[in-house]
């Protein structure tokens, strides 16, 4: 990080999680991946993850490139900062079928969407906004203080 602007505007790559006290504007770009944004409107703190696959099956290391690991680690980070789980709200983005032949059981995007819904539901965290599925990639910008999202879909091909 070379200046204050960069340090307060992280870009999230696949398999990454960002959650810190303070005001940050987090950006990511999604295809079939999912970004879960968790926000505590009482503490005005938030974080984001960016996962590629729905569930870690126990092989190898438990990486946040898997939804069940990424959501758990993001939740733990916010709880460690003093957020109450009962205050948290979720916003979920991504899960596109960017390759037109991706459908049915092999559709990673759809499985990623379902993983987010299932995991957040199991934790009792309501999804208050989402833009998921379809065939277009998305750019998501999350203000961790305001809890606001700017989202733009790629032009249809």
Describe this structure in words.
It is a single chain. 21% of the residues lie in helices and 30% in strands. It is α+β, with helices and mostly antiparallel strands and 157 residues long. It has one domain (4-153): 60s Ribosomal Protein L30, Chain: A, CATH 3.30.1330. The chain has a 5-stranded mixed beta sheet with strand order 1-4-3-5-6, covered by helices on one side. A 3-stranded antiparallel beta sheet has the order 2-7-8, with no helix packed on it. A hairpin with a 4-residue loop joins strand 3 and strand 4. The longest helix is centred in the C-terminal third of the chain and has 15 residues, at 108-122. It is globular, with a radius of gyration of 15 Å.
Question: Structural class of the helices, strands and pairings?
Answer: alpha+beta
CATH A-level architecture? 2-Layer Sandwich
Basic shape: globular
Share of helical residues: 10-25%
User: Alpha-carbon distance between the termini?
Assistant: 35 Å
Overall strand count: 8
Written as H for each helix and E for each strand, in order along the chain, the element string is HEEEEHEHEEE
Summarize the structure.
21% of the residues lie in helices and 30% in strands. It is of the alpha+beta class.
What are its keywords?
157 residues; five-stranded mixed sheet; disordered N terminus; alpha+beta; three-stranded antiparallel sheet; single chain; 60s Ribosomal Protein L30, Chain: A
């Amino acid at each position: 990080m070379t200046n204050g602007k960069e340090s307060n505007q992280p870009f999230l790559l696949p398999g990454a999680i960002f959650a810190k006290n303070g005001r940050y504007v987090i950006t990511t770009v999604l295809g079939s991946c999912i970004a879960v944004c968790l926000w505590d409107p009482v503490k005005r703190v938030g974080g984001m993850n960016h996962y590629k696959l729905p569930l870690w099956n126990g092989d190898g290391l438990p990486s946040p490139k898997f939804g069940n690991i990424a959501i758990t680690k993001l939740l733990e980070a916010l709880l460690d900062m003093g957020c109450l789980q009962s205050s948290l709200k979720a916003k979920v983005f991504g899960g596109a079928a960017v390759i037109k032949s991706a459908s049915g059981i092999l559709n990673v995007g759809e499985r990623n969407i379902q993983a987010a819904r299932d995991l957040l539901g199991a934790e009792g965290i309501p999804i208050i906004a989402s833009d998921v599925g379809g065939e277009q990639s998305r750019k998501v910008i999350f203000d961790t203080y305001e809890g606001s999202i700017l989202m733009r879909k790629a032009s249809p091909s």
